[in-house]
Amino acid sequence: APFDFALPGVSSISCDHHKYGFAPKGVSIVMYRSPGLRKYQFFAWTRWTGGLYGSPTMVGSRPGSIVAETWAAMMYHGRSGYVNCTRKIIAVTELITEGLKNIEGLRILGCPQVSVVAITSDVFDIYLFAERLHKAGWQLNSLQYPSAVHICCTMTHTKKGVAQRFLEDCKREAQLLVREPTAPAHGMSAIYGTSQQVPDRSLVEATLDFVWEGYYSLGGDEGGTLSVPLGLV
Q: Crossing angle of helices 126-135/162-179, nearest 10°?
């Protein structure tokens, strides 16, 4: 099924090169259906005392090195290289999907088409399942509404034996949790499970703001924080 500009309702498409483009983080592109849509991302200020200021994006100044690195990565892989990687990733995604379908206690959400497989459980805490897999060396991303996790398949998973080891670890942890479905969650699994039960989402947002404040605050002489707020630009 088409998902690009062939669909009348698609007006823009964004792409992060650092994912399946195998480039460094910090480079993304956005494609528009027409120049008329693109013009709305431009910013200009003509009354600044420092002169005329214009920027094609919200970011402003950016390093050119990562652009060069991204170009080098794309030239290195080329169209045929990316197509070959895509075929391998889709193949391993299908392998993992079929394997997860046969594990008791797990249920596939939707119908995986490319590289992402989302799973949930009607038997045990899926976040606790992901936490245990994390201890075994696997990184699953937590989802909500409904409670679920997903694996994003990459070229790493296409290496010999990796997908099979993942499925074996999934089966082992699922079997343990099926026997003990009420096992308590800890860490991030407990946070995700609890936050979904809070009806006032503004409270959850306030909690996230508090977490970020903790990252950016610097300890003062008396254990307080400096009066100058810090932030990433």
A: 130
